[in-house]
Amino acid sequence: MKSINFFVDELGSASPKAVASRLYILSGIMVSAKSKEQLKIKADQIKFKYWGKTNAIFHSREIGRKSGEFDILKKEETDKSFTKDLIRFLHQGDFQLFSVLVDKTKMPKNWNEKTIYKKTTDLIIRNFIFALLAKKSCRGRLIVESATAEKDFYYHKAVGHYLARGFSKLNINYKEVQEVLTEISFVTKKNFDIEEQIADILAYGLKIKYEKKSKDQATEYEQKLIQVINKKLFNIHPKTGNKKKKLYSQIESFKIIP
Question: Using only C-alpha atoms, what is the Rg of the chain?
């Protein structure tokens, strides 16, 4: 039985009052347990190369600002070398990306923070469940970077809904969902999960992709990150059979709402 992990991270604030945070993004990384080990090994090699240790955390904000442990990137030579290694690592990594994005300047006026949490968590979890159902013979584990009890509640609620009801319109009963989605847990960055760190980096890439920056506006790092995003966003393989395609067609890997 194949084990599949799905790590979810967020970028921005869901609060309409947080005017400095126009976008709210959920970034989900799906990876097998076997591929997870390979990702960790390769990430640790990069970390040891630049810091002489493996417990550094890839964090998009610090990478972009060249702050904290990433102040070493202020040296142009180090910056170019690290960017090359990081982008290669992301390109070669065996994982798939799913995302949900809310542009708060375009959402209905009656939406509030709770509405955004409810809609985004529901969509990202639906994507994961449909991916699991299509694979079959697998066990899925949902891992979320914990934030607040209120926010975590919406993940529990969405998971509980599908475990109890399934997808009646698609003739998928709750037992089928229970067969493939078997666990939900909450972690912090101190858990050092490389998938969560990848989700964090790519959340920033999703932001850049949505903003459609021109080559003159985007840095070289941002341009390369968009290339990674386009490669890793889930897509249906042309040779996928009709049965799987029916499930995969329910997935919207770059979903912009409303």
Answer: 18
Contact (Cβ atoms closer than 8 angstroms) between residue 124 and residue 199:
no
Record the tokens describing residue 191, joined without a space. Answer: 């858990």
Long-range pairs for 153-158: beta carbons < 8 A, 24 or more residues apart: 154/117, 154/118, 154/121, 155/8, 155/121, 155/125, 155/184, 155/186, 156/184, 157/118, 157/121, 158/118, 158/121, 158/122, 158/125
DSSP code of 155? H
Phi and psi angles of residue 125, each rounded to the nearest 5 degrees, phi first: -75, -40
Q: Are 205 and 225 in contact (CB under 8 A)?
A: yes
Domain span at residue 184 reads 2-257
How far apart CA 163 and CA 28 sit, in angstroms, is 20
Taking only the tens place, the pLDDT of each residue in 123-155 is 999 999 999 999 878 999 999 988 777 889 999
CA distance 173 to 20: 42
| Structure confidence by residue, pLDDT tens digits, 171-199 | 999 999 999 999 999 987 677 789 999 99
CATH of the domain at 53: 3.30.420.10
What sign has the CA pseudo-torsion 31, 36, 40, 46?
negative
Number of domains in the chain: 1
Token pair, residue 206, equals 């999703």
Could you tell me the end-to-end alpha-carbon distance of the chain, in angstroms, rounded to an integer? 37
Nearest CA to 233 out of 257, 214, 205 is that of 205
Sole residue written with tokens 């442990």: 69
